[in-house]
Amino acid sequence: MRFTAILSTCLLSVLLLAESCFLPHSLQVSVPQNIPAGYVVSKVDFDNCDTKSLRLTSSDGDFAVGSERTIVALAPVTVAHGGHTFSIWAEDASGQRSEMEVHLVHNTMQKRSVRLLPKDGFLRRSKRRWSPPPFNVIENDVPPFPKELDRVVSDSEAVHNVYYTITGPGVDAHPVGLFSVDRNSGMLSVHRAIDREEFPEIVFEARVYDRHTNAQTDLPLPITVEIIDANDNKPTFTGPLQFTLLEQSKAGTVVGKVTATDRDKENTPHTKIRYSLLSGTDMFAISPQEGVITTKTSNLDREVKDKYLVTVQIKDMDGQANGLSNSATATITLGDINDNPPTFQKQSYNVDVEENTKESLILRIPVEDRDLVNTPNWYSQFVITKGNENGHFRIETDPKTNEGLLYVVKPFDYEKDKNLHLEIMARNQAELSDPKASWVSIPVEVSVKDVDEGPEFTAPSIRFIVKENTPNGTLIGSYTAVDPETKDGKGITYYKVSDPASWVNVDRNSGELRVANTIDRESQFVQDGIYNIIMNAVDASSKTGTGTVILQVEDANDNIPQLPTSELLLCEKEGELSSVLVVAEDKDQSPFAGPFSFEMAEEHDGKWTLERFNDTTARLEQTAELPTGIYKVPLVVKDLQGSGREQEVTVRVCQCRNGACFAKPSSISLGPLAILTMLLPLALLLLLCLLLAFFCVTKNEMRQFDNTGDMGGILLKSNTEAPGEEVDSNLIIGSMAGMEQEAGQGSVKGSLLNAEFMGNKSASTIGGFNMQENVLHQSSGVLQADVQNGYYSGMYGGGQFGTMQLGGGQFAHSSASFDHLQDSSVNQTWQTNGRYLQQKLAYLGAAEEGCYADDILHMYGFEGVGSVAGSVGCCSDQDNHDDLDFLNTLGPKFKALAHVCTNK
């Protein structure tokens, strides 16, 4: 009751103005949560006004102002937690109005149960000790500040000397400094205006303490301060204000909906928006509550006006005078419909065309269309509705200009068609939307002009049937032409323009066609049995006409079935006999082709059998196992008419993998060093055989050589694996001196014949002899010596024995020295070796088996590189793909010997 009295006093002090009867801005009244009908909320007193002429009304139908200027509830009302707000309007006799907002808040008297822990350890419910009033603050309240709200009271102050504190948002947290509390009295104050849209409510915490002990005398209490909404925000548009509407729409057609919002509190008059139009009301209307724009007329024509600008207003407080408003311009664009057919610029057209004209543009027909450009409602399509029964014309639309393009596609004949009457209609791609409208047509007159024409054949093309292989000179037929004006064929000559195979001759005067060369249906110039010939007919004025002769070539049995010429592959299969398919082909057509008959030729070896597989194929099967190789099998194949002959097919029998024969081992080409390495062991073996043969052949002729001690200077033992080392010439001086003393005049006898000095060449060291620059060469395998210069030539069989200069000196040009050489042990050694080699060569040349004779050294022409065939000797049947890596593991002795042999 104390709070109600305070509010009533404040209300009366505000209303009692000396010079004005306008209501205060707002009134806040504390009421029960459930207000019964007939409940008096408050009283409005106007002492300085003429109350008889003052009219008071309420914006809320649940409340009214009675005769005693009291605000009375007409029906039961429940006040929500956030309160209930409505307006009281006052209007005097002059029509002036003022508004007072009434804020009803209910007194919840928030209590809080406190649970204390007693000494016995069990929880017990204690009585509620806080008794705070409800706290509500009007947003954007006017100064002066601070303003007291009400006391925060704790029941504990009855037994304690207490003080109060508050903490949290609005106090020491954002928004800081908005609220404060008097420590002693607990009075809560607000220090500035609050925006409800930013802080709909603020919750902070109150505490109570004993002044002497500073101990809390009650539990902390959360306090909620609700901000009462004021109408301080204008409504705003939220959606686009661009709308499209088809022209000629009926009245009442929905154009679109305007949407808006208001930041004030929902479900209050502050956010109840009313829509209205400030312009364009003659064409459009808008619903006040929903904001839906509709048409008021059906005469909206895009071709007259294609866009409308309409001003839309939105106002809160359901459009009342004190409501806040906003406005914007809505754009309504009219969409096009096909309500205008294309129209011609002229009523008719006349055009002249020469005969024989074709594929030529003869007329452009422009049109106009008021519909939207470059749309199906504007694009024109032209149709020839009359006069084109023979297909002489074609009409199209120019995509850039939308004009009709009239073409002649089939030439005119002046003698037949001199004038033609056309009807051309223009229409759109889209159908007309107006059922009363129709497409428009115009007449077009076409006049044909006469032109001197060339000859015309009796038909553009003519067909003759001719059989292939028809004898030359046979008449095929005639193809003639006439003058189109005179219908006479005199003076016209005929020529071939195209005859790819030169099969036909044409008579220039009569147009007769005769066979000139053998006609072959299987020729590449014949397609599906058709052969074309192009002919020209030329009159006296050199005018030309063209025609086509079509020869339909009939087939003759001039081809027999042919067997494949390529090899047929027959894969060996262990334990069974294999077969292969033989396919025959015949270039002729039925009945001169298949089905074929297959049979073995009379003279076959019996190793094969033949079995029919289908009309063109037979199965060739071996009758016994055959070695790998190539076989020629004779077969006889005949067509359906019995034409055919004996032919051979080539069959390769081999082991297969994946349908192909195993690959043959490829040849290996070796370089000179590799060949030498391979032949070196063979040469050593051959030398051993020669030595054994020497002992066997000469055992009866062996003579005893006296060891005079002179041999020591010739053969020396050496373990050197490199080229021979130098020998001191003093070792053989004695031997040479003895030879010079015994040598006399004459020439060497026996095997030393026809000594001849061969020239100067470099020498090597053999058997301990130092071979100087002077060298003796072989001549027919005989040892040659130059007695005058003291040289020997031991060249047998291609220079196998080196050339020596004994002791670095020269033989004395005397018979005594030469006789000594002849009788010395050196001479005896050379004679023995020469005699053995001559006998051995004779023996090898006379050997019946030829193997030894083939394996001696021969001279061959050098071809530049190793032969891909490999070796051609008696050992060439050995596998030439053996691994030769063993040559790299024969050890250092073999490598040293190879180095000696290859050193130049």
Would you write up a description of this structure?
The chain is mainly β. It has seven domains: 2-106, Cadherins (Immunoglobulin-like, Sandwich); 125-228, Immunoglobulin-like, CATH 2.60.40; 236-335, Immunoglobulin-like; 343-409 and 419-428 and 436-449, Immunoglobulin-like, CATH 2.60.40.60; 456-554, Sandwich (Immunoglobulin-like); 568-661, Sandwich (Immunoglobulin-like); 698-855, no CATH class. The protein is built from seven helices and 57 strands. A four-stranded mixed sheet has the order 1-9-8-4. Strands 12-18-17-14 form a four-stranded mixed sheet, with no helix packed on it. A four-stranded mixed sheet has the order 20-27-26-23, with no helix packed on it. Strand 53 and strand 54 form a beta hairpin. The N and C termini lie far apart (141 Å). Mean pLDDT is 75; it is low at 1-20, 108-128, 701-714, 724-823, 848-853 and 876-881.
Q: Please report which band the strand proportion falls in: under 5%, 5-15%, 15-25%, 25-35%, 35-45% or over 45%.
A: 25-35%
Task: Report how far apart the termini are.
Answer: 141 Å
Average pLDDT value? 75
What value does the Rg take, in angstroms? 68 Å
Largest sheet report: 4 strands, mixed
Query: Could you give the order of strands across the largest sheet?
Result: 1-9-8-4
Rough shape?
flat
Number of domains: 7
Uncertain regions spanning at least 5 consecutive residues: 1-20, 108-128, 701-714, 724-823, 848-853, 876-881
